[in-house]
Each structure stands twice: as C-alpha cells, then as structure tokens.
Amino acid sequence: MPELPEVETVRLGLEPALVGRVIERVILNRADLRFPFPDRFVKRISGARVSSLARRAKYLVAHLSSGEALIMHLGMTGRFHVQARGDNRPHLLGDYEYDTATGDDGKHAHAIFEIEGGGRVIYSDPRRFGYMLLVPEAELAEHPAMRGLGVEPLSPDLTAAYLAKRAAGRRVDLKAFLMDQRNVAGLGNIYVLEALYGAGLKPSRGASALATRTGKPTAHAERLADTIRQVLTAAVAAGGSTLRDYRQADGSTGSFQKTFRVYGREGEPCLTPGCRGTVRRSIQGGRSSFFCPVCQH
Prior knowledge:
The chain is an alpha+beta fold. It has helices at residues 4-18, 41-45, 160-167, 174-179, 189-199, 219-237; strands spanning 23-28, 50-56, 59-64, 68-73, 79-83, 91-92, 109-115, 119-124, 131-136, 280-284, 287-291.
C-alpha cells in the first residue's frame, strides 16, 4: 500500500491540474470502488471549484467551493492520470507496482473528472481497494477517516517530547507503535523500518524506550524524531519507492527504493560504516521486518 511519500508525490502532481479550477463534469464508469461512491456524487462535485488540495496521513483531501471536502484513498493500486487539453495520452502520476499483472489499458478508469480549460483527471484502480468520500467541511475533522489520527511526521508537531508522551509505559514494540496511525499519521512498513535503522533501534524493542520513568524523552526519541523526518523528506524528493513520477519524462520509477538502507536487504551486509552485521528478516504482526542485529539495539 502506498505510504506518505507516494501519496504526497501524487498530491504534488495533481495540485497544478486541480487547484483553482472548476470540475465541470464527472463521469463514473461504475457505481463503486471499495465502497459505493457517495450519494449524488456526480451532481455534488460538478461545478465545484477546488480551492486547495491537501494530504492527511495517506489520504488526499480536495477542499471544494461547495463547502464539502473530497477525501480520496488510493488503496493498493489506485492511480491518477492527468490529461491536458489537446494531449493524446494522459500523464501518469502514480503507478503502484505491487502486481505488474494489473496493468491499465483503460478498462480500469473508474472516475473521470473533466476540468475547466479542457483537461481531465482520470482515476484508475485495477483492484478497487481505493475509495472516495464527500464530507461537509464542518464535519471533516470528526469524520471517522480523520478523527484520532496522530501528528503529521513532516510537521513541527513530531518531536521527541511527543513521541515520549505517546510511548510512556507502553508495552507494544516500536514498529507497531509507529505504524499505529493514532500515534504518527501516514507511516507504513517501509519507512518505519528505514527510520528505525537510522535511529539504531530494533523494530522489536519496546516503545517505552522512548521515554524515561518520568515521561521525558530519551536520546532514542530524539534520534527517532529526526530520522523519521529525514527519511520521509528524502523519499518525497525521490518520488517515493513504488510509483512512476509524473515529472520524469522517461517514465522511470520513483527512486527511493534504490537507497534503502535495510528494507528488503535480508542477508546483505549492514551499510553502517564499521558495522560487520548482516541484515536479518523477521515477521512482526504478519509483516516482514528488516534490521541489523549488531547496530540496532
């Protein structure tokens, strides 16, 4: 499933195509994705201007002049194409390549947004795990999709003190703690493991290591807050790990996977200078974890 950097890359691609423009017409080629489209979806969207496009955790949120917000989740294989007026082929923004057999030949284009000026934004989703919701702006913060989400990890709110406060006295391991969206919004398996490696912390270590007995942040919390931000910033700059970046004319994939320090490197030498460890793989919560048993404690 795409994580924060992939969703943010798609947001950056959609922003110039949507923000400030009117959605003149919506075409739905089916009644549902993971869930049915909202009641009267076409009528409620058509004619609305997109005032801004935000990201919250792994969600895209388009704020509309109608007073509603369009929440979009990409699921496993959701992707957007943008087609400018006069273009013969739409430009791909996000191509999640977990299963290359789910290639898109047009039959998976489930929603088409015709934009002021003659452009189109096309949402495709071979597996249909994505979904779209329409929520009144006044109710957005309390909507189940938004309510209870933790801090944005690229915001100033992610601090060592915050991590310590959330982790104090917790018995859960660090990986599960960070992947819990109520603690930190938008993190998934890949970037959690990369951040823990950078901080020198084993994924199976207890989250309580981030706080002292009095609840103050430990040095572990300080390092972890910094490495989470560093890893995500680098991943966004690289266009993510699993998608084809719309800005790259050659169609090359997002490149952050080429710089993985630990993820997917089972049996390979640790990349920490001077460390003679070998990357190991374990299973936590049904998901693979990768770590160095020598320099992660």
